[in-house]
Amino acid sequence: MDYFSIGLNIFCLIAQGIMHVYFCASLTGKKQKAYHFAIYIFIFFILDWIASKFSFPWIIVIGIELLILYGVNRFILGNRPSASWVAAILANYISQFSFGLINSVEAVIFPRVTNTLLLYSMVTAATAVSLAISIACYTSVVKSISPEEIGHMTYMGCLLFPVLFFFTAELYIMQTSYTQIYYDVLSPALLLEHTALLFLQALGLGALLCTLYAYRHLCRSLQTKAEMQSLSQAVQAQKIYIAEAQTRYEQTKAFRHDIKNHLSVLSALLNNNKLEESKAYLQKLETVSTTLSFPCQTGNSVVDILLGEKLKMAKADGITAEVSLFLPPPCGIDDFDLCVIFANALDNAISACQSIEGVRSIRISGERQGDFYMLAFENTCSDNPLPPTGTGLSNIRAVAEKYHGAMLTEKIERRFSLNVLLNISIHPESISIQKP
């Protein structure tokens, strides 16, 4: 091997090492650091030296390279096992196909070149083109799959198996067709063979991009379906809350209507010195009034019912709750939208509290600021990073934007806060729902 080949090999190893780590970190949403690249490139060089010294088969070398890149993803970048495998396979898949594509061109053109300087120039250009193709494909993959989809891996099997198939086919092509790519005479049969391989490898890269496109739309379709189901369940739940609130209101109205009669009966019992009967009658009135009262008085009967149900669940799990909230009577926010905010916020808060030990608490507060009203939900949580925004928070954000407001989340150590700003001066009839 001459100095040109050694230098070009070193350059390719460094370039591929940088691209592999950068691609894996970008794909999984991790922040790359300088020592990540240094570790991987160093191991990459050792693997290449061992493979050339002991003449390992190419498939074994690629397998070891996959394991190394998996280890970098898993133990250095801190990704999940499934995400680490997918990132490692995609990184190697793209680099092998990109260089294999150019190898087909080299096999057709290079045997006809006799000038050494021209040959070196063409090899350098071919290497640059291979790297450019790799970068373009890496960029397309990163744009096609979000870190949230990689992190959850819900439907990644749909992507992984086609990629494994194409990757295995490429390894077979590289092993059987490009062990020696330079010939003294390129026969028409070999020319046809390498042209066909060029076409197949171009199809391989195209198949990857098409698979990613289909995978992205599959994920979005299933996510939309899940959101619709969640929204449908939320609608049913809010209808129950509203119906129960109306029932409580009618019962309270009836109780207030009869209060004069109750006071007359009580007065008559006291006038006749029937103290025991009076106490028993008062206890009955107290029992009735307790069933009609709400643990929280927010000024909105629907929210009072919802808070009562959710805080009852929290208390059963040993979660303390503090409510400091009063919704102004001239409020342009629909009861259904209030239920969406409170139900989703409290469900998330209770779930977060249930996942930890020790002190568990929830705090709900509200404050009017001119034409705007700020709702604040705070709860204890674990030290783990926040998961991707789910359907619940997405629904809350949609309601906030509907009322020309905003939603903000923040996590500080073991405390999570959710703030929802709403414009309460907007008349419900003036709100226009934007269609996607």
Automatic annotation (TrEMBL):
Membrane spanning residue stretches: 6-27, 34-52, 58-77, 84-105, 117-141, 153-174, 194-215
Domain (Sensor histidine kinase NatK-like C-terminal) ranges: 336-422
Gene Ontology molecular function: identical protein binding
Pfam family, one: HATPase_c_5
InterPro entries to which the protein is assigned, alphabetical: HATPase_C_sf, NatK-like_C
Keywords attached to this entry: Membrane, Transmembrane, Transmembrane helix
The name this protein goes by in its record: GHKL domain-containing protein
